[in-house]
Specification:
With about 140 residues, this protein is an alpha+beta fold. About 40% of the residues lie in helices and about 20% in strands. It is globular, with a radius of gyration of 14 Å.
Length: about 140
């Protein structure tokens, strides 16, 4: 994924909200992800200057993880012995993800992992299913052909 960018301001989240979402089930985390991604117009992944850190889902498929806020990505990687000083949240504009990145991810066969906590995704979707979910949430058509 290209087109990394940093928002001018990332509002801090109350610790109570963070704790509640980290303890929430997958459905609640997916709903929260959708709401925040649309409100903020961006999503977070994890990686370094060389690119995004890819995951594997339970079926062994290459998966990119998206979070609704960098604090959740940071918490997911707390204590990770493979983490180094250059690792951190990567921000991507939602419009860029939907119009530019999804066709590339689809061509590569990469899945979208929503809001993982530990090693557990809230949901893992094909690119087409992710686009459909976003279309429903945004009330419009997303062309990923």
């Amino acid at each position: 994924m290209s087109e990394r960018w940093r928002p001018d301001h990332v509002a801090p989240l109350p610790e109570r909200e963070i704790a509640a979402l980290l303890a929430a089930d997958g459905r609640a985390r997916t709903r929260y992800f959708l709401s925040k991604a649309i409100d903020n117009a961006w999503v977070c992944a994890w990686g370094d200057q060389d690119g995004v850190t890819m995951w594997e889902d339970s079926e062994g498929s290459e998966t990119i993880a998206f979070w609704p806020h960098p604090v959740y990505a940071e918490r997911c990687y707390e204590g990770d012995e493979d983490r180094n000083d250059t690792d951190g949240p990567l921000f991507y504009r939602l419009d860029h993800v939907l119009t530019v990145s999804l066709p590339i991810l689809r061509a590569d066969g990469t899945k979208i992992g929503i809001f993982p906590v530990g090693n557990t995704f809230a949901d893992v979707l094909s690119v087409d299913d992710f686009a459909s979910m976003m279309e429903s949430a945004l009330g419009g058509v997303i062309d990923i052909s």
